[in-house]
Specification:
108 residues; mainly alpha; three-stranded antiparallel β-sheet; 3 strands; globular
Amino acid sequence: MSRATDGDASTPAPTALDAALGRWDPSTGIHPEVTRAQTRRGAEYLATTGDRLRRTDLVDALADGSTLDTASWWGRAVDPGLRRLAEEGIVEYRAVDDTYRWIAQVEP
């Protein structure tokens, strides 16, 4: 009988983003898995661009790919999720200009 081991190449190592989203129990009124998935999209986009982005930048780039309306996508899924990731030290939120930026050392 064989079993997966820590060195099993078929099982990717969890990332800081995975861990942070796994610990988060969103109570946004949207199904938690949808909320986590949309937050992941936003965070991965931040990591890819490396830029400091405003809400409108993220909405323009990503909201069309969601089944949620734009207001719900941002206000009830992505914004609460990114703020949670800011608490975890994965993204940086700057209130003075209402922007987010990926800051984690490891890519998602």
